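# nightly structure sweep
# worker-07 picked up a monomer target from the shared queue
# config: single-sequence mode, recycle default, output format = structure tokens
# input follows
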Amino acid sequence: MIFQKLKNRLIAAFIFLSIFPAIPLSFLFQSMMEKVFNLGFSRRMEMALEDGIKLSRTILQNEKKICLENTRQLMETSDVRRFLNRTTSIKYDGKEDQPFYVLLKSNAYDLDGIAVYDAEQLIFIYSNDSSINRLLNDGSLIKDALDNQIILSEYREEERAILTGLPFLTATQKPGILVSATRLKADFTKQTENILAVFQFYKSFGFERDSITRSFLFAFLTVYLLIIVISIGIAVFFSSTMTRPIQELVYGTDQISKGNWDYQIALEPRRDEIGKLTDSFNRMVVDIRHQQQRLLFLEKMATWREIAQRLAHEIKNPLTPIQLTIQQLKDSYKGDDERYKKTLNDCYEIVQEEIESLRNLTKEFSEFARMPVLAFKPIDLPKIVRDVSALYSKISIELLLDDTPPIEGDSEAMKRVLINLIDNAAAAMASKQDAKIVIRLHSKNESVHLSVSDNGLGIPSEHLSRIFEPHFSTKSTGMGLGLAIVKTIIEEHRGYIGVESVENLGTTFFIQLPITRTII
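# output follows
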């Protein structure tokens, strides 16, 4: 429930941060649109466009007048009048009307095409431009002017040409019309069309100003709404990725408080702060577990030392009186009974052996009870390994030693560690023909790694967890204090010792020691 509240708060914060800017942004957007409209669609701009259109129309009217005047002058020439005054509607005769044709071909009147119609048909047409030729051939354009005998002056947008027609009467008083076509310059027509198109767009845009503003605003809000939806999705994702590790951390601390020192947070690897936090938590749990195990081990060792000290004292005190008493019993017998004398000597030897065994036991207890204070200084571990191995000339020992940096340690204590491990390995291989011990030494990651391996009988898996406990031993002799002492020495060196064993294949003790000793 707590994490759901946190998740909801994160989502609400994302939504608020997404929506809050929308209000000022919408006002800003509308204000910008107003400024754009006012800048681009001002009255001054509209007047300029209207003036441009008026100017174009004025120029077009002037062009119409010029075309009309040119057509009138052409019509008043003698060659044209003679051609138009024919009494019959005979089409152009090349021989008779040669002067008329030469006049038209000279283009002296700046006309792009000429056509002559009477009431019945097209009499004559001349043009070098196919589109002008089609225009002049279209009798429907001049029908009204021909029938009503009125002047024709019309701008044809499709051909971009001015169509001019002057009515006349033939010699027989039949109506006719002289039609001319003049194409306007391409630049003028294009500019006029552009101005007109811009003006029409301007007017239509002005009429739709409010709807366009609303459309843009609606599009803006739609996009912003999409952004909000995406933000909510991102918020849900990030809130989940943030709260889940925290929830795991809370659950982990609860497990630790209940004594579950093996709990680890299992999350996907992350490189952010949450990932560092979970990694730190897992390392902390491992360190606490190791410290807890070390503390328990030290408590056991302290208890066993106290017990060993008392046992050594209680056992050692009566040994001398017992030994002296049995000696006196042996020496005081002066009889001739050989059988009794032999029995007395045998009992004396047995008691002496047991007394010596008890003396060794008290010595072992005493050594265990008063572990010497370690004197740390730089030591050459490869040299110590070689020196200790040389003591075991009757055992096959293979040394695989790298040149490792000096470590801070106690040389006598490390010799004691090696002696214990080699003795244990030798005891495990006592019944083997191909007995062999391999000692490896190398450095890695600011640590020195030492291992002692044998190919002996191995240690049963159910005993591995107790192998370093005081007074635990798989051998019939000894008190099981050797490996406990070894672990104590390694712990004092701020190192780590472990064991791996497979029954009937062998055992490996591996030790890790820091190159630079850290004192807590």
